[in-house]
Amino acid sequence: MISVAKAERLILENIEFFSAEKVSLEKAIGLALREDILIDRDYPPYDRVTMDGYAISYSDWKKGLRSFEIKGSQPAGKKALKLKNAGESIEVMTGSVIPDNADTVVPIERIKRKNNNRIEILGNLSLAKGQFTHKKGSDIRSGKKVLEKGIFLRSPEIAILASAGFNQLPVAKIPKIAIISNGDELVEVGDKTTSFQIRSANDRAIEASILARRIGKVSRHIIKDKRKKILEKIIYLHSTHDMIILTGGVSMGRYDFVPGILEELKINLVFHGISQRPGRPMWFGMSRESKPIFALPGNPVSTMVCMNRFIVPALHYALSTKPFYP
Questions:
Q1: Contact, 238 vs 291, CB < 8 A?
Q2: Residue 44: which of 81, 112, 98, 124 has the closest Cα?
Q3: Under DSSP, is residue 180 helix (H, G, I), strand (E, B) or coil?
Q4: 92 and 99 Cβ atoms separated by less than 8 Å
């Protein structure tokens, strides 16, 4: 019998990191980032206009100029035009680059167009140098970290990755996890029950705990209390999955076959029994292929205590992800 703290430590000392893979941006949604992401250029990448209007030189305004000649139009996505002389302005659109030699934008609502080539700034407008502009690199500088490894990629992170030009990126490969519930009394949800049977719920609770956090792909299996059937199922699922979680049959009763079966399969026992209630008979071991095997007591409260106290953190650790609670 070991302490809770020692059980936590032994699990993390034995469990290995799941592999990583590179996927396209559209396939990365909901997955966990495996490496830090550094931005490839300043953001914004140029001095950007944030309001439709007219770009002028603030020094002209300070000199008392209120009427400006229109020298062109600067749409978004085009190379910067240039103010060449005092008293000139260029029409600008939101998202466009600031014209060369301009540093301030006057909103279109504060402008009166006198003819096709001149504007007049209305009223006693107070201007601030650089207003309605977004300076190059003011959000973040090239080479800086924008996303940390271990985060799950949702819409904000996907937008950042797209802005940073990442079409392929490393993510944690989601493990395949088999959940085995054993007991003659168990039937699948939706099946008919007798007066001495119950519907299997532990497997559903474990599945929900994993899927809600997006830390595994799950298959569920209900097996009767038959030693040979349990053994055969474990052998098969071990060959097709990255982790196995069993519920029930882990204590010391006549039909508690699981510890003996795992010993017969030469699963390396790390511990069996934790000084806690509920969840005392919990079993943990590693196969020769370095796949973790957890066996939990069948009591529903015990199952979920062990699941959330030990297995969920272990999965986050093996995926190199930051825990979150749905």
A1: yes
A2: 98
A3: strand
A4: yes
**312-319 and 202-213 helices, crossing angle to 10°:** 30
Q: What is the pLDDT of residues 131-174, one digit of tens each?
A: 999 999 999 999 999 999 988 899 999 999 999 899 999 999 99
Sort 216 into a burial class: Cβ within 10 Å, 0-12 / 13-18 / 19+. Answer: buried
Residues contacting residue 292 through CB under 8 Å, at least 6 positions apart: 11, 14, 15, 243, 244, 284, 285, 286, 314, 318
In the three-class reduction of DSSP (H, G, I as helix; E, B as strand; rest coil), residue 312 is classed as helix
Could you read off the pLDDT of 1-41 as tens digits, one per residue? 899 999 999 999 999 988 899 999 999 998 999 999 999 99
pTM of the model: 0.73
Closest by CA to 285, choosing from 314, 312, 254, 252, is 314
Q: Calculate ∠ Cα 14-17-20, nearest 5°.
A: 170
Look up residue 113 and give its two tokens: 């167009």
Domains of the chain as residue ranges with CATH:
4-18+175-319 (3.40.980.10), 22-43+141-173 (3.90.105.10), 48-134 (2.170.190.11)
Residue range 267-303, pLDDT digits in tens: 999 999 999 999 999 999 999 999 999 999 989 999 9
For residue range 62-113, what is the model confidence (pLDDT) as tens digits? 999 999 999 999 999 999 999 999 999 999 999 999 999 999 999 999 999 9
Strands (E), 174-273: 176-182, 186-187, 198-199, 217-223, 243-247, 268-272
Residue found under tokens 């167009």: 113
In eight-state DSSP terms, residue 15 is: -
